[in-house]
Specification:
Chain lengths: 312, 312
DNA sequence: GCCACCGATATCCTCAGGATATCGACTCGG
DNA sequence: CCGAGTCGATATCCTGAGGATATCGGTGGC
């Protein structure tokens, strides 16, 4: 039995007339008679009573037609669901990101994405760059936003593109000696207890910081000790209560609150870029849609992305 | 798109391998490749990722497959539902009957029917012979049980068969003069106030009663007045409280209760037969199943039914 | 009783679906 | 680094199911 038989039976039930049903189906009357009678033979049951006043379904016909309607509805739903999924209108996107992405980049991109694709299920999880890279490779995430391009085993399976740049700022509590200054120098920082991202979790930031504060040496040795904080709000919170000098991207200003002051670091120092990564072989249309929006929202991302995607 | 495409896509998703899926479908591999790719072309979306490790559905494929499974389930349900309806295992039977049918005939037939066809929805309604005949002709009933074969307009569209015979008995209250007698004669009845079925509703009974008690004359004129009661329990109830002499079929004994006495009428008088009727053109398998059971349960019905059905 | 309508049947034809053979890409082991 | 093996895609041919046309048979209405 093919779905054709269902369509024919439904048309016949609707028109109660072989000739008109056939015309509506765009075929001649004899083939319709044949197909209906073949269907009845296959089912071993008469589906229609042919009377002088018209063609009417039997009890078996009614039962059959009810199911046939649902079957055809499922089929057309299959087509439209597949289309919507292919266009990225439905589906799922699991996104892992570092906290600072939530300060500037994500609010704008996510807002647009959620408005454009209301039926996509978004999974959002703040996590360190190391964890998001691992989760991406393990297939637990579809997209990761971190600092610095992923390196190490499996990194060649990922495509990464820079989506933001920040320079370094220092965050201090109101009682801190730096509080009055608009700027602090690198030399001044070297003696301070620093609040920074955890070295193992943010390898790019750690390596960069080590190079900045003391070539080749561990950060704690050159600074007055280090406290590791996993996210922007913790850095600010710790700085505000005088634990030390928080170091982070300039976008920390967005999260600043009364009782803390954000100082520029002089000379101006660029942090490792904010990088968006995904699996090179991932053809998910939802991912593509997200990348499209990122392209529109982040100047310069478009060209860099094209260059990398061309290689796929 | 045909249901074949759904079957092929599901097989491919199951085996994750074109060759094995094709083998499972009983076709060669190239046609499967062609059909899948035709389906993808029609949908405008790739449904499967062909990788070195196997064939896996894309997001669009997953969406499509979920619907496809349901569509095919509906189709196979359509087949089985139609079959069951055709065999009379599901469906509906609307039965109208006079109260006395409930005393002997229906309990046995209905018990078997409900056990054999638990999924058939039974519509049972006690009603007069006149009403059940009209409802049958109007298509509001599928089967009617009454006294005497239906006559009048439309009766030629019905098939009727005798399913039971009864002789006349009289029912009196304990205080009635007849109460001590085992038998009453027709002569004795003539002077009594009678409780009988309503003349307009039970034409066969009324005509028969008129003939019996006084040729050509109305029953009330020859008897001591008449009370019309629509059902057996009312006849017995009225008789028990001394309203008069209830007349009805011998099966009334089944419903007799303390305080009433059932007397044979002498000489023995046969009542109009209990008759089962249905539309001659009704091919409902549920009806056929009910008739089958009646055939088994009621000796003699089988041959009479065959004779009448042969004419259809 | 004749005609008009409608579904069934007969006959032919076309093309879609399937089979066979082969290709091209990729993997893996020596 | 290369050859064998695997797997999906492609090329080509063939068959039969589905469809078209013509006609039949039955039924109801005028």
């Amino acid at each position: 039995m093919e779905s054709r038989h269902l369509r024919y039976a439904l048309a016949l039930a609707e028109h109660q007339h072989f000739g008109r049903a056939a015309a509506a189906l765009g075929i001649a009357q004899p083939p319709l008679s044949q197909q209906i009678s073949a269907l009845e033979r296959e089912l071993g049951a008469r589906l229609f009573d042919r009377t002088a006043r018209g063609v009417f379904p039997t009890a078996a016909g009614e039962a059959f037609l009810a199911r046939a309607r649902r079957a055809l509805a499922e089929m057309s739903a299959a087509v439209s669901d597949a289309g919507r999924a292919a266009r990225g209108e439905t589906g799922r996107l699991r996104l892992g990101f570092i906290g600072s992405a939530l300060l500037e980049l994500l609010p704008s991109v996510l807002g647009t994405f959620i408005r454009d694709r209301p039926e996509v299920r978004l999974g959002l999880q703040e996590m360190s760059t190391r964890r998001s890279t691992a989760a991406l490779l393990a297939g637990e995430l579809d997209l990761a936003i971190g600092r610095g391009a992923p390196r190490g085993a499996g990194a060649e399976d990922l495509v990464s593109v820079t989506v933001g740049r920040d320079h370094l700022v220092a965050v201090v509590g109101a009682a801190h000696p730096f509080a009055g200054q608009a700027k602090v120098s690198l030399e001044q920082l070297k003696g301070q207890h620093l609040i920074v991202a955890p070295a193992e979790e943010e390898p790019a930031v750690a390596a960069w910081l080590a190079g900045l504060l003391g070539e080749g040496a561990d950060v704690p040795e050159r600074a007055g000790g280090v406290t590791e904080a996993w996210d922007a709000h913790t850095i600010i919170g710790l700085a505000s209560c005088g634990v030390g000098v928080g170091l982070g991207p300039a976008c920390l200003r967005v999260a600043a609150r009364p009782g803390v002051q954000v100082c520029e670091v002089s000379p101006r120092v660029e942090l490792p870029e904010l990088v968006m990564s995904f699996r090179a072989q991932d053809r998910s249309p939802v991912l593509a849609a997200f990348l499209d929006i990122t392209r529109e929202r982040c100047p310069g991302v478009a060209e860099r992305l094209e260059r990398r995607l061309g290689a796929r």
